[in-house]
Amino acid sequence: MNTSLDCIPCLLRQSLDAARLVTADASIHERLLREALHWAEDMDLTASPPAMAQCLHRRLREMTGVVDPYCETKAWQNRVAMDMLPRLQAEVEACSDPLLMAARLAIAGNAIDMGSNGRLTEQDVRQALERALEDPFHGDVEQFRAAVFEAETILYLADNAGEIAIDRLLIDQLLPRTITLVVRGSPVLNDATQEDAKRVGLDRMVEVIDNGSDAPGTILSDCTQDLRDRFAAADLIIAKGQGNYESLSDEPGQLFFLFKAKCRVIADLVGQPIGTQMLLKSRGAPAPGRAPAARTA
Asked: Which candidate, 116, 54, 56, places its Cα nearest to that of 266?
């Protein structure tokens, strides 16, 4: 998707939130914001919002020398999610539709997003997970269920720290299929990296790779050739989070987006209220020469 004019204030807020995490020096805050305002004059609105955010966060790291401004934030988010995981696992095991329950909890975990809420607290995280089944839900559930049944290889594009711990619930439902979990290649916002996947034990469940990119989404042209090859070959791609939706919404194939609609731009695009849990199949044209793999029960 293209960057909307309404995305610009959000990108500016992100840059200021991140700068304040790094330093209390108001002169750096001002300098970064002035640079961002100047840069916004020539912003390429045909690019996706994650591409714009990538540029801003790179500049922040250059100015401050801090590689991962959200390091401490991600640590507590992983801890809180892991603390809640056993109870959530029990709820999945006890319900009549464990695949859907795990998917909805994984989507609820997408609330752990510092891009949309720079003041996110532990209480916010706990409430989001505790009320997972109370939030409105809209999705292509039966198409998703059928795609999972038919798939032999699944590419799972992760999004945020904390959220990645809750992804374990859905990944457990997808096993024993061959699953590759994809994280960011470098720190950006509170997006999950290899370190986060290891902290929540996903490296012991599935293969974990990084995409080689520092964008808060999946910009295929900015990713490694290995990631692009796996993306093209996978029977099913599960893309978590709004950033992945923003950067991949026009891609074809067996691609499903699991995210919370967290802003007016996305809510209007999907035609659902802000806060809705979304499970959407890509509306891109079918990939040429691709057919889903047959799978027997």
From this structure: 116
